[in-house]
């Protein structure tokens, strides 16, 4: 089968053996897959958790149809339309654990369905399960113009947040944030952004920050969070190391929590997917939670899809079809 593989000379489309499902695995005929930021690093040979390196089939998000079942797989049958996340998505066939997929709603095509699994699982966990958002609270999403950021704002609104603030350092993308749930859009590279957040919250700060940036905004986040508020760290787009005001952290009694899928067990990931199904799936089926598709590429043009992502001018998801 055709797959996009990282090799000694970089990533390229190659012929590899079609995988066989074992245990609770499902074999998926991939119809569409979506790019994520982590893919750009793996395309350059960087590891993402335990995955990466020479011989790695790249990609982590897809939509397609069930082609075969492992002996212990349950909940789906051959021919079902599904979408999910996991390794080796950029291929004609991929494997997925039966608990790490969703049924693709009948009112979505495969391109639309492929945009959702990572954003839904990541941000329902960050905003609701870990972040504990409550109706009437104020929420700030750092890095809101990414696909997962756009989803985080929509989930916060769905759960009743009274004020949703989104950040983007790009003026055009920042102007679009109100289309996806933001009541206020800020530029986190502007030294005055904390004052804007405090003004919007009557000087108190927000109840919850979901931070995909970290780096230089880490201490600013502390100043923008209310006393006994929460910061959920889901990324490091601003760098892995930075100054951190420990005194301010203690003074404001902020609950600072780190989350990632890279160190979660399959049992933990299954639980996260189940929480999405139980809590917000009706909103997904009603298309209240959706992401814009910036551009669609054919699989043969996957290198062009990555060039488009690395140009960093897109809003929403970049999709590749097979």
From TrEMBL:
Coiled coil: none annotated. The keyword Disulfide bond does not apply. GO terms for molecular function: oxidoreductase activity. Keywords: NADP. Residues 7-320 form the Enoyl reductase (ER) domain. This is Quinone oxidoreductase.
């Amino acid at each position: 089968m055709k797959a996009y593989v990282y090799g000694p000379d970089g990533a390229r489309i190659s012929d590899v053996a079609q995988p066989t499902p074992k245990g609770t695995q499902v074999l998926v005929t991939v119809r569409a897959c979506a790019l994520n930021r982590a893919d750009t690093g793996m395309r350059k040979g960087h590891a993402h958790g335990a995955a990466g390196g020479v011989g790695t089939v790249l990609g982590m998000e897809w939509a397609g149809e069930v082609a075969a079942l492992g002996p212990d797989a349950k909940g789906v049958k051959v021919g079902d339309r599904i979408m999910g996340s996991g390794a080796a998505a950029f291929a004609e066939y991929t494997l997925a654990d039966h608990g790490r997929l969703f049924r693709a709603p009948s009112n979505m095509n495969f391109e639309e369905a492929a945009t959702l699994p990572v954003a839904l699982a990541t941000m329902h966990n960050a905003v609701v399960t870990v972040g504990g958002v409550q109706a009437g609270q104020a929420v700030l999403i750092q890095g809101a113009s990414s696909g997962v950021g756009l989803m985080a704002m929509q989930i916060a609104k769905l759960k009743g947040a009274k004020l949703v603030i989104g950040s983007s350092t790009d003026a055009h993308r920042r102007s679009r944030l109100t289309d996806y749930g933001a009541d206020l859009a800020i530029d986190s590279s502007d030294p005055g952004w904390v004052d804007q957040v405090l003004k919007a919250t009557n000087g108190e700060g927000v109840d919850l920050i979901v931070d995909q940036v970290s780096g230089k905004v880490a201490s600013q986040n502390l100043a923008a969070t209310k006393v006994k508020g929460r910061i959920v760290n889901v990324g490091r787009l601003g760098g892995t190391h930075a100054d951190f005001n420990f005194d301010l952290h203690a003074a404001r009694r902020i609950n600072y929590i780190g989350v990632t899928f890279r160190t979660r067990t399959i049992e933990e990931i299954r639980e996260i997917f189940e929480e999405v199904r139980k809590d917000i799936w009706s909103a997904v089926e009603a298309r209240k939670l959706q992401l814009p598709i910036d551009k669609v590429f054919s699989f043969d043009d996957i290198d062009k899809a990555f060039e488009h992502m690395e140009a960093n001018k897109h809003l929403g998801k970049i999709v590749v079809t097979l």
